[in-house]
């Protein structure tokens, strides 16, 4: 596909369509506030729950953008304080951010930009994207990139800052999952994401000193982390790569034991991570994945122990236990078997075997990052509060301190939210809804609260502090350069 060609055409189309379809816009915004004109209702399927979970997610998106998408909060975040009449504020900051809309039919509209939240909202209602990606802040408004570059000289359209981002996807754990594979997730494998959040969150805060971290459920099978400290946003691609590599314990290779790059003396950060990993391994991963009650996993785990005698003894024991389980007789579960394995290693008193025990824990629990996403400033990443076009689930923010309480099955779908909105209006009347805050009357409310309390409030106070500091510096410079009047 000629990617850039599609983009250019779409960008032109966007400007023209945006001006030429005032009527269409009106219709959409009416739908946005008036929930009477939905296709489902016209089908005559109107019941107490008007919006059908099995219907097409895209049909609900005009209403979602019109009534629920938190444009104000998104704008507050992405403007980083440059939204007020502050002497230090860069009024074009938000407008230099690239938004990429994916329209129905996989049509990419890259290099979209907006003056403020209101303009973003108008575009969302007009274009009804299936997905919104966020790109970097460029040196000029991305819409003006061609005109800028054509001026020649050293004028090159280029990204200048962007959040440091991390992407953890459950599909990368397929070789250590016994419950599902591919895009599927369940309560047995989700703890792997909990571990990833806890390990990466701790590392970013304690080892790198970052403070403003936004964690988001990707809507289906993974999580994203946005590091929003200004120090992280201004990092070069090389520095981003170094941070991503810091969190990459795996070094490729076919077999699990070859992919773990730990040494006898673990880096202090890996030692700290190990405490979290081991706890989750024993409490969740081993019992839920039943790792030592699965032929394939038994083979992989035993291969990691460099002692043929130990392997042979354990292999026999574990296979016998498996036969018992399969024939419905009394058997030992994976946690008991792991304790036996530890005892067997203890009797051997061999350092390499002790290391193998740790390696198993690392291989089966350590976060697996898609490092390519983190390495480049101009990599696009799906925006929080998008709706997954297949599952209909909202990409809600997560509180890393409560990661172990997060259940993806609880995440509301767009149909559920719209039904809740209607129900709330039926019970309390429309006049009770505060414009722009309608989400607070639905199950999205608690996620909005958390977005603010676990992320946005802290970010805003840091931003305020930075503005105050730069104002102080500016004043000092002004004082120092003031002509002396004696
Ligand atoms: Zn699963």
UniProtKB/TrEMBL annotation:
NCBIfam families: primase_sml. SUPFAM superfamilies: Prim-pol domain. Signal peptide: none annotated. It comes from the Eukaryota. InterPro entries: DNA_primase_S (IPR002755), DNA_primase_ssu_euk/arc (IPR014052). It is an enzyme of class 2 (transferase). This is DNA primase. It holds the Pfam family DNA_primase_S. Its EC number is 2.7.7.-. The keyword GTP-binding does not apply. GO terms for molecular function: DNA-directed RNA polymerase activity; metal ion binding. Keywords: DNA replication, DNA-directed RNA polymerase, Metal-binding, Nucleotidyltransferase, Primosome, Transcription, Transferase, Zinc. Belongs to the eukaryotic-type primase small subunit family. One of its GO terms (cellular component) is alpha DNA polymerase:primase complex. One of its GO terms (biological process) is DNA replication, synthesis of primer. It comes from Cymbomonas tetramitiformis.
């Amino acid at each position: 596909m000629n990617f850039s060609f599609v983009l250019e055409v779409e960008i032109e189309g966007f400007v023209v369509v945006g001006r030429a379809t005032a009527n269409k816009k009106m219709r959409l915004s009416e739908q946005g506030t008036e929930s009477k004109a939905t296709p489902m209702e016209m089908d005559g399927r109107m019941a107490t729950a008007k919006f059908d979970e099995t219907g097409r997610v895209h049909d609900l998106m005009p209403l979602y953008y019109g009534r629920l998408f938190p444009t104000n909060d998104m704008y507050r975040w992405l403007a980083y304080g440059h939204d007020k009449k502050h002497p230090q504020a860069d009024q074009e900051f938000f407008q230099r951010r690239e938004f990429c809309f994916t329209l129905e039919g996989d049509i990419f509209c890259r290099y979209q930009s907006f003056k403020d939240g209101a303009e973003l909202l108008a575009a969302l209602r007009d274009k009804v994207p299936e997905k919104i990606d966020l790109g970097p802040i460029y040196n000029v408004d991305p819409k003006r990139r061609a005109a800028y570059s054509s001026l020649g000289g050293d004028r090159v359209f280029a990204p200048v800052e962007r959040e440091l981002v991390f992407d953890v996807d459950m599909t990368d754990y397929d070789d250590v999952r016994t419950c599902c594979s591919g895009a599927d997730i369940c309560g047995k494998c989700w703890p792997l994401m909990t571990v990833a959040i806890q390990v990466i969150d701790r590392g970013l805060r304690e080892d790198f000193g970052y403070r403003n971290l936004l964690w988001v459920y990707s809507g289906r099978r993974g999580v994203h982390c946005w590091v929003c400290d200004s120090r992280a946003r201004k990092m070069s691609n090389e520095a981003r790569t170094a941070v991503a590599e810091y969190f990459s314990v795996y070094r490729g290779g076919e077999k699990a034991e070859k992919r773990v790059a730990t040494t006898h003396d673990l880096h202090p950060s890996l030692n700290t991570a190990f405490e979290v990993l081991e706890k989750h391994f024993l409490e969740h991963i081993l019992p839920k994945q039943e790792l030592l009650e699965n032929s394939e996993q038994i083979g992989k785990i035993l291969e990691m122990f460099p002692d043929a005698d130990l392997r042979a003894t354990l292999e026999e024991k574990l296979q016998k236990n498996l036969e018992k389980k399969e024939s419905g007789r009394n058997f030992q579960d994976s946690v008991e078997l792991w304790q036996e394995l530890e005892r067997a290693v203890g009797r051997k008193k061999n350092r390499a075997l002790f290391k193998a025990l740790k390696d198993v824990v690392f291989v089966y629990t350590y976060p697996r990052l898609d490092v390519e996403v983190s390495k480049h400033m101009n990599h696009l990443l799906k925006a929080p509060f998008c709706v997954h076009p297949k599952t209909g689930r909202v990409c809600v923010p997560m509180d890393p301190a409560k990661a172990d309480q997060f259940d993806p099955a609880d995440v509301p779908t767009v149909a559920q939210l719209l039904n809740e909105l209607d129900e709330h209006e039926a019970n309390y009347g429309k006049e009770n809804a505060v414009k722009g805050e309608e989400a607070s009357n639905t199950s999205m409310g608690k996620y909005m609260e958390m977005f603010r309390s676990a992320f946005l409030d802290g970010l805003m106070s840091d931003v305020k502090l930075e503005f105050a500091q730069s104002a102080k510096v500016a004043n000092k410079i002004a004082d120092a350069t003031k002509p002396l009047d004696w």
